[in-house]
């Protein structure tokens, strides 16, 4: 009955598989190979074994970048999820209950629409926008106000120990709305009578949040953590565009993606850049494995 | 699809006898609720301001001249200087970048949806040897960071003679969008009922016609979600065009162009032009978002709910 199945199957799969193998699978496979060579793009690549990896271990910039990924990996999810959870709770169960239905505070719909908007903008555009916001003189949005008030300007992107946090703030600014919407969907699926029962037992709003909402939202939180973790390992566009000198000042904000780009397409050290790529790959893999391990937990049935 | 199925009607089966107890809470409780909502309202309003003000400030600054920009960030422009936009659109080439982005993203999203839905459909609904292997080959792409492949990808595209061409960027966008598209759509096609497909086959419908005329229309909600996801993701791409189009300035996409203008604005001291360029980049997104707000929110979050 399923006449002519194979020609159809092959016909439908041919183009996508070819495209995918040529542009995705083949480059990934080659990356490992190139990372073992001293290829600079001109002469034929020479096999150098693990030399590139040994050099990575002595490369201060590489370790700076890894350290920044560590900071991003902790700070970005923690801050974003905390703010987003708080807002999602307010928007969904923060208000009084009307006829047994939990209500959000007034203006919930408006806030959800506004908060989500930065998600639609490209990170590179946002980075340029915040370059203007952070400008160190009167023309900056924040410093213009500070200087009008007679205060000293804050050198957001220029002071090395402030620069990375200024960048994290922008990432949080963009991400919060997405997670408010995500958590709202999760909260909407928690039955109202659970809140009601808890309130009858005298639970306060704070207790409701920690004892009811949080445990029942665990799966969604896990997804959020993985997403933000992946974002923490990327951060190319924001660092490349927003920071002084792409990763500066003096490497104070650099991330691996920026170093890979610089080594490959500015210095033409293709072998070395590929070794960094492989290192980044294993870092990402470790993160994914650890997250799955650590957050594994009995899910609550309701 | 999970987005829809995980939202059961909240108060569907409320146990009887509960609501009566709700009335006897004291004034203290009421007070706490009001304090909490009050503080919450303030926090929400503050965040809304934090989101809106930088964007609004950019729009205003786009009409100012340089001395106004440097005098105070809060004053309104003395007059509406539309010429700033003209300068950004033509002299800074924002117009070209914008149209390039529209062209590239239209082609790549169409290609992604076509090839992605074809592959997802076959992988979801046909049994053949190697089906699982091909499916996992695609899905494994979700786990790899693009940066790992950046160097070899550059040479693959160069060796094909597609460097500094839109064709190259479009093909690469499609290839890197396939894993998520196939992962999502395969799950969607699996949920479609078999009976319709069988009825079609009995009526003498070919496999190809069955797909385009019966299955695709049935998968419309899923297709819309993934399409939005891909459009926004590909529109925001910065890294790939930076590597693949670096020497062809007339082919640059918007993200790349704006980032470049921001570097040059420092040398040319044309800040109002940069603000105008930013406005041109942001304003259409606000309009599109205002119209498709609901679909965009569900489209972007549907990936996470899976």
UniProtKB/TrEMBL annotation, chain A:
| A single cellular component GO annotation | plasma membrane
State a single Pfam family of this protein.
BPD_transp_1
Keywords of the record: Cell membrane, Membrane, Transmembrane, Transmembrane helix, Transport
Subcellular location, record wording: Cell membrane
Q: Which CDD domains match?
A: TM_PBP2
GO terms, biological process: transmembrane transport
- Protein's membrane topology: Multi-pass membrane protein
Location of the ABC transmembrane type-1 domain: 66-291
Q: Which residues form a coiled coil?
A: none
Record field: transmembrane: 7-29, 71-93, 113-134, 165-190, 225-244, 270-292
By sequence similarity, the record places it as follows:
Belongs to the binding-protein-dependent transport system permease family.
| Protein name (Swiss-Prot/TrEMBL) | ABC transporter permease
Which organism is this protein's natural source? Answer: Micromonospora wenchangensis
UniProtKB/TrEMBL annotation, chain B:
Q: Which CDD domains match?
A: TM_PBP2 (cd06261)
Principal localization reads membrane
What membrane topology was assigned to this protein in its record? Multi-pass membrane protein
The annotated region (Disordered) lies at 1-28
Mind telling me what this protein is named?
Answer: Sugar ABC transporter permease
Any one cellular component term from GO for this entry? Answer: plasma membrane
Species of origin: Micromonospora wenchangensis
Q: Tell me where the transmembrane regions lie.
A: 42-63, 97-123, 135-157, 169-189, 210-232, 271-292
Q: What keyword terms does UniProt attach to this protein?
A: Cell membrane, Membrane, Transmembrane, Transmembrane helix, Transport
**Ranges of compositional bias, category Low complexity:** 1-15
Q: Which residue numbers delimit the ABC transmembrane type-1 domain?
A: 98-292
Localisation: Cell membrane
What Pfam families does this protein map onto? Answer: BPD_transp_1
Protein family membership: Belongs to the binding-protein-dependent transport system permease family.
What processes in GO biological process is this protein linked to?
Answer: transmembrane transport
Known InterPro entries for this protein?
Answer: MetI-like, MetI-like_sf
**Higher taxonomy:** Bacteria, Bacillati, Actinomycetota, Actinomycetes, Micromonosporales
